[in-house]
Backbone:
């Protein structure tokens, strides 16, 4: 297997609703032209799939359960090519431009909330294995997010991590974050027993409310799902990272 | 001038803040290759500009004042080619899919709120003139929006129009809407004297609140600006139409 095939084979498309705790992603094998071996994405599919991506990334689509069949190759190309990296680069640039307008408190009371999967870490870049990547704790950083994370720390912003993963995954999650280059966050929230069965939007809003109740101002929030960003106790500014692979309510 | 050049020349890039009342758009002349005459959009510009569009359409960018210089040809291609039509088609499809899940009240108390410029009408399709298109009242319909508008009416949804245009433009606005094929809306809100100077988000939220206070449930809202969709008294579902041309706070 070449590296690209590895990446493609690794990903497991997960359709998710309430208590999705981690993303195991598998994208389908690419279709190749029988003569040239090139990927075949028809022009009309490309046009439609770009519009589908507009639809889901703006949240116009609302809940969605699977990548349209005609867009599977398009999505594979998107995440394994330059575009996913480029889009997340621009998100990090927008986030940095915003926080530089904030007069950050010297008492550490200005906060930023990060989701983890497909926000700080992205197993899309992990060409390691087919299964159990969370146990292996080797999902790499999304490069632009790691850069922005460190820039926030230099500015004195207090960082909270808020993930839909379960409490029992705490050790592996910490290990993975450190492996990927993250350190010195203020607190890592995972779903505890009382959070089970809650919609991500509710669970995450409650945790943000807790952060605010402790006297922090949540300046920004970064997530690949709208459920990371909406609800109540929302950040002053929210930053949507790309994710055309799965949806979490 | 050929039709494409007409369209391109027509558009005037308007940078807008608080009391923007209509969109006069002008995109720059395209750069052409001196030998082939083809448009020249470099691959790295294309990659960057797609990411820039992700950034502004998700509202990650927040307020922005101009199309990046390197993206002017990209945006011209986007709006004058298939992609703008395709994206707005998919928005209309998302909107229809949602309203079909609603058990629409037989008393006409379920409402939908539409913005006008670049939502119901789009002067991008108007190859008529350089100036004063609003006075001419001949901006065409955005085709997918007109189709969805009629589908809503068949379903018994009550339609409100809510525009940042000023009250003095009422007659021209009505004339233009009728010319483009729209009819039988419940009410058309324009900015009156007491609305001057308000941010669009505030002005539009106040009008939605008024609609709700009259006993309507605002099921959906369609607009090309986030300021059409956010604030208070927001619709149950909001639908963001594409607009990489200008931003209204």
Residues:
């Amino acid at each position: 297997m070449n590296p690209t095939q590895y990446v493609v084979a690794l990903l497991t498309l997960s359709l998710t609703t309430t208590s999705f705790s981690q993303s195991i992603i598998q994208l389908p094998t690419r279709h190749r032209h029988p003569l040239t071996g090139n990927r075949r994405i028809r022009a009309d599919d490309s046009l439609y799939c770009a519009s589908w991506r507009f639809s889901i990334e703006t949240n116009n689509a609302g809940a969605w359960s699977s990548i349209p069949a005609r867009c599977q190759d398009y999505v594979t190309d998107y995440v394994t090519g330059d575009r996913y990296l480029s889009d997340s680069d621009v998100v990090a640039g927008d986030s940095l431009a915003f926080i530089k307008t904030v007069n950050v408190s010297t008492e550490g009371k200005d906060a930023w909330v990060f989701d983890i999967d497909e926000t700080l870490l992205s197993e899309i870049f992990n060409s390691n294995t087919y299964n159990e990547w969370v146990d292996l704790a080797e999902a790499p950083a999304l490069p632009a997010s790691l850069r922005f994370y460190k820039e926030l720390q230099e500015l004195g912003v207090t960082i909270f991590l808020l993930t839909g993963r379960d409490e029992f995954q705490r050790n592996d999650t910490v290990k993975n974050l450190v492996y990927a280059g993250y350190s010195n966050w203020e607190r890592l929230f995972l779903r505890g027993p009382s959070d089970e069965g809650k919609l991500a939007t509710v669970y995450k809003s409650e945790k943000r409310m807790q952060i605010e109740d402790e006297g922090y101002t949540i300046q920004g929030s970064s997530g690949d799902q709208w459920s990371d960003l909406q609800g109540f106790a929302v950040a002053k500014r929210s930053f949507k990272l790309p994710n055309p692979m799965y949806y979490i309510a």
